[in-house]
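tool_call: predict_structure(chain=1)
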Amino acid sequence: MVSIQTLLDKFWDPDIWLPPNITWADLQSSDQIEYTHHKDLLYPIPMALLVFVIRYCFEKYCFIPIGTALGIKGSKPKRAVHNEILERAFKQNLKMKHKDISGLAKQLDWTERQVERWLRLRRAQDKPSTIVKFTENGWRFTYYASSFSFGLYVLWDKPWLWDTDLCWHNYPHQGVSRGVWWYYMTSAAFYWSLMGSQFFDVKRKDFWQMFAHHVLTLFLLALSWVCNFHRIGSLTILLHDFADIFLEFAKMAKYAKYQKLCDTVFAIFTISWLVTRTGIFPFILIYSTTVRGPIIVNTPMFPAYYIFNGLLFFLLGLHLFWTYLILKLAKSALSAGQMEGDIRSSSSDFSDTSANSALVSGDINSTPSPKKSPLK
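tool_result:
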């Protein structure tokens, strides 16, 4: 029988994770240099519990008072009277057709109007209050703004922030600073917290897409850390935090009914998304990992590199798809003269005739029905 240690040795084979002729012993930290270590990736898991606590405090003691002061309501809609038959039918078929409603009306000896009214109330009672959505977006705005600011502070004096070729000079013998270490760990902790909180947050139509996105993000963070790609990895984190700041703030402005502010910030978000996600990301960062990196390292690349680079291309594909939806959203907004609906709608916000597509980033948002423009 193969022992666990044998399996671990095969898994951590340096031929998979490191360039040729480099072993894990070559990347042992010393008094002169601190290297990344795969065991560091355990720290974000308990740190995620602290993120939950910080989030709770921010939402309860900061954003609920702010939302209340802005006049955002937190009351829940009227609940539908419990009916076992209708409840079972509702859970089995969220989008009932007229024949379904007619059949239920006959079964209950109700009028079709009574069934339709019950269904409207039932849908509404699952819809989160505006104050809940405001506080959730407020927390994310706080995180992305803080993370981007911290990342900029940590990386500002790093020469490879300004010249990506330096991400590969002397690779893999590149030490990691305390600031970059904390930047990575806090970013991973945030995404671990999202993995858990997603099951309790406002339910989105793109629930499983976002879940997969969080898994992909954590995998990219872990892979870049183990392979000592922390330079290009930290630049990728910084780049992806930027546009999300404006997205979350636009949602907050929408819920607070500051329509002009929402429209302005959404326009800034669209521009920042296009510049960072479809400009800098593919033409500077991916170009660096795909073209410049192998040339500068000047050794055959290894399996983990190809996986890492392949995932970056997969992420770019998602960005291009989301860009299409964002531009479609922006076009609808320009046609209507303002944003309507919710930038990222919960599933309960969807009517039977309006199928909004999921979009955005790290955070996927919904596109409006063709007859309506996004966000009002």
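agent: The CA atoms of residues 314 and 369 lie 27 Å apart. Proceeding to next step.
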